[in-house]
Amino acid sequence: MDLSEESLDVYVGITSKNIQLNNFYTGEWVSKWKITKGSIEGNISIKAHFFESGNVQFNQKKNLKKEFQFQENMA
User: What pLDDT, in 10s, does the model give residues 39-55?
Assistant: First the structure.
């Protein structure tokens, strides 16, 4: 395959939830990625909720992008 003339985008989603109501916490990870010839970009969202002796919530979001050089024949 000659990748110099071809364009291919790959989309990846990763998600995980941890619900422990008996232990008074929940958590979630969600990330979405787009991989193209020469770059990867996406975002990550993390949420945590603790509620045993109070109500504590953590929410974090991060956008990421990285450029790279693709080499077809890596030996």
Answer: 999 999 999 999 988 99
Q: Which long-range contacts (CB under 8 A, 24 or more apart) does 42-49 make?
A: 42/12, 49/25
Chain centroid, CA 15 distance in Å: 8
Here the tokens at position 9 are: 């985008």
Q: Are 25 and 49 in contact (CB under 8 A)?
A: yes
Place of tokens 């080499």: 71
Is the CB of residue 29 less than 8 Å from the CB of residue 15?
yes
Strand pairing report for 39-50 and 56-67: antiparallel
Site of tokens 């929410």: 59
Model pTM above 0.90: no
